[in-house]
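Hi V.,

You were right to ask for the full record rather than a summary. Here it is.
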Amino acid sequence: MQLNDLRDNQGARKKRMTVGRGIGSGKGKTCGRGVKGQKARTGVSIKGFEGGQMPLIRRLPKRGFKNIFAKDFSAVNLGRLQQAIDSGRVDAKKPITSESLIAAGVASKARDGVRIIGKGELKSKVDLTVAGASQSAIAAVEKVGGKITLTAKISEEKAA
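Predicted structure:
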């Protein structure tokens, strides 16, 4: 098999119907759109319209808000970090950064940084440099003799 021999399976791509080529084709004149009106024309914006009745989207109550300034951290559990150390994907003797965690496949994406969560058990002494960490994670790392350095700025209200 060669690259020039590759083809789609039979019927994988459906050909678009040719319209507007005379009444003998069965899709001539109005091209299957019926006659006149908003729906016969391009740019139809009738989706949420319910015939003058109050639309569903406006009848339902609105709750809460989306904070557009919220940081989106990639979370890593201590148990998952210990698993990566045991399997040799992360070296506990060297300083562990967000980049090394992503390269090892422990964290999926960088997003706004990596945040360590205190779920699971950590047995190895580690030196972590990450964007954030929970109080329980910091306590667990310091308990085994390790150190966590946080790179993300903590707001004044949270620090107090």
